[in-house]
Amino acid sequence: MSDASLNTQASTGDAEFGDYFALLKPRVMSLVVFTAAVGLLAAPGSVHPFVAFCAILFIAVGGGASGALNMWYDSDIDRVMKRTQSRPIPAGKVTEGEALAFGVALSGFSVVMLGLAANWVAAALLAFTIFFYVVIYTMWLKRWTPQNIVIGGAAGAFPPMIGWAVVTGGISIESVLMFTLTFMWTPPHFWALCLFMKSDYKDAGVPMLHVTHGRRATRNHILVYTLLLAVVAIGMGFTGVGGALYLATALLLNVLFVAGAISIWRRDEAMSEADDYAREKSFFKLSLLYLFLHFGAILGEAALAPYGLGGW
Fold first, then answer.
1. What is the 3-state secondary structure (H, E, C) of the chain?
2. What is the pLDDT of residues 73-102, one digit of tens each?
3. Which homologous superfamily does the CATH classification assign to the domain defined by 1-171?
4. Which residues have C-beta within 8 Å of that of residue 208, sequence separation ≥ 6?
5. Average pLDDT of the segment spanning 214-237
6. Which of 38, 119, 165, 280 could staple 295 via S-S, CB 3.0–4.6 A?
7. What pLDDT is recorded for position 10?
């Protein structure tokens, strides 16, 4: 019997609460919760605080369900990659069948409850987000094309649109721009991670851009997407969710982010191993702060609006 089979069977009846919680990808879920909450709070109009709390909770559960289903399907490559070998399934704490059942149950629960608590437009967006992440990205794009993270990044960009729809019952240019900001941010953020993860994706047979086209092409792509992202991010400052606070934040962050992308682009590839990809790691860490502060500025504009200080 293979080691993989042993790992799959070893956990029957032994899983603890923490193992199931780890299936939900709590770090990713925290980003989902934050951007969805910003979309909800920045939307025109309001909902009862209890409805808002329930909506964010069910969006978080839906995001966690996507993570569980992703870990179920990717358990074979998770066993190969050093970054993911400690996840519940490859570590033998949860079986693949348990993860599948857990993810499916939470998916159905989150969509139905969001529809009942808020509205069915928001619920439909959540259902589509789960489908997109699990089926379009995980099952299809991830192992098929080096553009996997470009297209698949849409799954992580939907939460602010869902939060917006909870309040408005629809979609607007502002919610689409929040989607676009996250969508354009995902490729440079993830490609920077790939560059210093070395051979993980190659060993797992995942056709990430740096595996199929090389590190130089990946650095070129990071620069191009960062420049396009800067246009979107700064442009949002002149919309209904923007204002002086947001625009000042966006200008500063994008100067830093573009400078980081240029630094990576200008790198002497022969020196990458010697300095342990310090520039890529620094850019990756900056990318986390970048998205958080942009959405934080949107939230700040929404908080100032009742006092006549937010917006233009």
1. CCHHHHHHHHCCCCCCHHHHHHHCCHHHHHHHHHHHHHHHHHCCCCCCHHHHHHHHHHHHHHHHHHHHHHHHHCHHHHCCCHHHCCCCCCCCCCCHHHHHHHHHHHHHHHHHHHHHHCCHHHHHHHHHHHHHHHHHHHHHHCCCCCCHHHHHCHHHHCHHHHHHHHHHCCCCHHHHHHHHHHHHHHHHHHHHHHHHCCCHHHHHCCCCHHHHCHHHHHHHHHHHHHHHHHHHHHHHHHCCCCCHHHHHHHHHHHHHHHHHHHHHHCCCHHHCCCCCCHHHHHHHHHHHHHHHHHHHHHHHHHHHHHHCCCCC
2. 999 998 988 888 889 999 999 999 999 999
3. UbiA prenyltransferase (1.10.357.140)
4. 146, 148, 149, 191, 194, 201
5. 94
6. 38
7. 46
Evaluate the CA torsion angle 15, 19, 23, 24 in order and state its sign: positive
Using an 8 Å Cβ cutoff, are 65 and 130 in contact? yes
pLDDT per position as a tens digit, 114-146 = 999 999 999 999 999 999 999 999 998 888 888
Half-sphere exposure at residue 187, Cβ-oriented, CA atoms within 13 angstroms: 27
pLDDT in the model for residue 269 = 64
